[in-house]
Amino acid sequence: MDARKKYLADGYYIKRGLIDDARISRLLKSFESFKHRGGIYYSQSNHNWRNARKDLDEYGLCEKSLENFTDLIWAPNLSRYGREILLSEDILVYLCKLSGTAQDYCMWQNMFFDKSTGTVDHIDTWYLDSDPMGHLIAAWVALEDIDGNGGEFHVYPGSHLSEFVKPENWKDLDHDQFVDWSENIGKEYKRTPIHIKKGDVLFWHPSLLHGSSNQKIEGHSRKSLTAHYLPCTYKRGGSGASSDSSTEDYRQVVSRTSKTIRQYGSLPIFSNRNRVNVKKCLIGAAKFAFNYNNKDFMPMQRSFYEGK
Question: How far lies 41's CA from each of 54, 67, 79, 82, 202, in Å?
Fold first, then answer.
């Protein structure tokens, strides 16, 4: 089936062998160095700044995910090799194919997983999406062969087309209610585990229900990247935001933000490709050093809800 047709029908598409071994090897070598020297990073799993060496399990795997690892000023190689993959022309080609238009994209957020963190089922659009909705595209890049022993990424094909995922059904829910709502939607669709090979890339729709499991067998990693991409001609949204993109006010907002897009944490593919967010890094380092406003907060982790 044509890539776009499959993406629209199922809510996801897998492109086999999109990323070559050489780029993956450079990234993984740099990541191992970063871990063992105790690099400081922001964890998407725990929503705080952490020391990578202190987060290693007995098998040497980092138990937390790294958010926006491509922006770390003290890890230039790790950041650069991450951008080589996540901001590559290879990724851009498929963003355009799946959207059906040739356009510029910005990377809104990315994550590095050494070990599966077990994420609750959810739709991305509750957290982040374009405004109007539906134009964000997410990607998951396999940095090794993934067979499920280190934890599974799973999707619910077709769930993005459900009447239930319309924003009026979830935009006024708090997070705990949203997690319950997502669990109920999953009962209506077949859960499909994604087992892919090194270099394969899974792309998915912002309204597709998906999640991940915890590690199944100790010592098994799930080395992978995720990123979320937004067309540069759209405002950032989420939470059901849906403005009229044809108005002059909307175009003016897009024009203004496109000139200062770095301050919002995005990274345009065609410009400022090699810049990193110095301000965020320095603030994060200070929070870690002084333990200021740096507590654990894990609203998306399965372990968080299993412990309630």
Answer: 12, 8, 11, 14, 25
How far is 85 from 94, CA to CA, in rounded Å?
13
Interval 123-138: pLDDT, tens: 999 999 999 999 999 9
Q: Which sign does the torsion angle of CA 122, 299, 42, 152 carry?
A: negative
pLDDT (tens digit per residue) in 40-71: 999 988 999 999 999 999 999 999 999 999 99
- The three-state secondary structure class of 93 is helix
The single residue listed with the structure tokens 């991450």 is: 82
Domains and CATH numbers, the chain: 3-306 (2.60.120.620)
Do residues 85 and 23 make contact, with C-beta atoms less than 8 angstroms apart?
Answer: yes
Q: How far is Cα 228 from Cα 259, in angstroms, rounded to an integer?
A: 20
Q: What angle do CA 48, 274, 265 make, to 5 degrees?
A: 40
E strands, 18-84, are 40-43, 48-51, 66-67
Question: Do 15 and 3 contact (CB within 8 A), yes or no?
Answer: yes
